[in-house]
């Protein structure tokens, strides 16, 4: 065999070997990426499993809509809040993508504004953090810290549409995102096209009012002795998110004369304004806030 022929034969063998290695790595990566996203705490060393750049605006890797979605998604009813036992296994602190999360350990009023995304076919039929099977056609959602299971109202701030979902999974873990919706929940909120939208997430506690409202009371009714009236505007699990929202409030609502600050209560960073001398003054202020920034304040007594 000539030197040229030998060189050509060696190069050909090297090319086949390189292709084989590439195919092996591709199969390995696909296998690694097929594991459930929220089956439990995420090992930061495996963070590469997640795409830090959302494709299509709102989902990971090769995730996306089903090939043949049902035609009656609009008729699927919202989740119906009911009393359920919280899972102790989902109350423990955990780490994901370099962040540490401390889940809530009880059902308490919670309200947060941020970005909603959604997840679909990639995780359909796989276990969620609750141990239940993820059904992309059910009205469920994933949240980093809300109790599992629990219920929440999610409102699209672009169009005012709201849905009620059952929280049974953990995530999302990307910056500024506060909830991952099922495919159907995203469909009903008109999130699918953009992939992600600004929303407000509010807990629903079975047996109580389904949404925070300011009750109409007698004008100039004073607070009881020893109590002061405040308006709670939001609650965050992250101090940074709370500070960002406080800055937004101060920028967009300069007309609020009362002090607006952040209090840390049980691991939640609550933004409140007040105190007010009577319920009527607090109610009028609440209405102004709702008209300006689509937030429904909760009246609290301290």
Automatic annotation (TrEMBL):
Gene Ontology biological-process annotations: cell wall organization; peptidoglycan metabolic process
Q: Which InterPro entries match?
A: RlpA, RlpA-like_DPBB, RlpA-like_sf, RplA, SPOR-like_dom, SPOR-like_sf
Question: Which terms in the Gene Ontology molecular function aspect does this entry carry?
Answer: lytic endotransglycosylase activity; peptidoglycan binding
Pfam families reported in the protein's UniProt record: DPBB_1, SPOR
Is Plastid among this UniProt entry's keywords?
A: no
> How would you classify this enzyme at the top EC level?
lyase
**What are the UniProt keywords, alphabetically?**
Cell wall biogenesis/degradation, Lipoprotein, Lyase, Signal
- Name of this protein: Endolytic peptidoglycan transglycosylase RlpA
| Organism annotation | Nitrosomonas nitrosa
Highest classification ranks of the organism: Bacteria, Pseudomonadati, Pseudomonadota, Betaproteobacteria, Nitrosomonadales
User: Gene name, please?
Assistant: rlpA
